[in-house]
Design goal:
- It is built from 7 helices and 5 strands; from the N terminus they run E-H-E-H-E-H-E-E-H-H-H-H.
- By secondary structure, the protein is mainly alpha-helical.
- A 3-stranded mixed beta sheet has the order 3-5-4, with helices on one face. The chain has a two-stranded parallel ribbon with strand order 1-2.
- A hairpin with a 5-residue loop joins strand 4 and strand 5.
- It is flat, with a radius of gyration of 24 Å.
- The termini are far apart.
């Protein structure tokens, strides 16, 4: 979604002070998001705050996106240097966050950059763009041209360079599974978009037909 919108994505692992092995968590995230900067940060210890401010930079605008309780507002308060945003604790029973931020808000940071605080989300919708999906899997994009078939789905076809790389241990199977999952979601998004367009066209056609009927009835009444 970020690349389709010509935006730069940075993964921030918040609450690094609670992690047993922050470097291992960063490495795991880097494997899942190849080519994306991953930072570990803590609003408690201040770890990673300077790196985050450096990524934003003066004159830039960033938005924090994450689930409820991920620590977005707390992190913004640390970046602001004051407790301006309302925060809340996670539930003791299941460690899930409570919804505290209920609206989007644009805030100016001391260094001349802008940050947008957002309510917590459960999921991010996928844009119906196959190229955008492939762009976040550069190691797979390098292989697709070597497949035997131009319309290879990289699932079971003979001569598939992607499957061959996975079988040879040259491609992370988790990355391939994520690729297949996003491709399925992209296909479903495209179907929903087509269905929406079809229904919109149907409503427009029915509306024109009704307008024609009303005009015909008015003409008949005048006659």
């Amino acid at each position: 979604m970020a690349r389709s919108g010509d935006a730069r994505a940075v993964v921030v692992l918040s609450k690094a002070d609670l992690a047993d092995d922050p470097p291992a968590a960063v490495a795991q995230a880097e494997r899942a998001a190849v080519g994306t900067t991953v930072l570990a940060a803590s609003a408690v210890t201040g770890e990673g705050l300077e790196e985050i401010l450096s990524e934003i930079g003066p004159g830039r605008t960033c938005v924090l996106v994450g689930s409820s309780g991920a620590g977005k507002s707390t992190l913004i308060n640390r970046l602001l240097g004051e407790d301006r945003q309302r925060t809340g604790a996670v539930r003791a029973g299941d460690d899930r966050g409570r919804q505290v931020t209920t609206r989007r808000e644009l805030l100016a940071l001391p260094g001349g950059s802008l940050v947008i605080d957002t309510p917590g989300i459960r999921a991010v919708g996928l844009i119906a763009d196959p190229d955008a999906v492939l762009s976040v899997f550069p190691e797979i994009a390098e292989l697709v041209d070597a497949c035997r078939f131009n319309d290879c789905t990289h699932t079971q076809e003979p001569g598939c360079a992607v499957l061959a790389a996975a079988e040879a241990g040259e491609l992370d199977p988790d990355r391939l599974a994520s690729f297949h999952k996003l491709v399925r979601e992209q296909a479903n998004a495209a179907l929903r978009a087509d269905e929406h367009a079809r229904r919109t066209q149907e409503r427009a056609t029915i509306g024109k037909y009704r307008d024609m009927l009303r005009e015909a009835q008015r003409f008949k009444g005048r006659k």
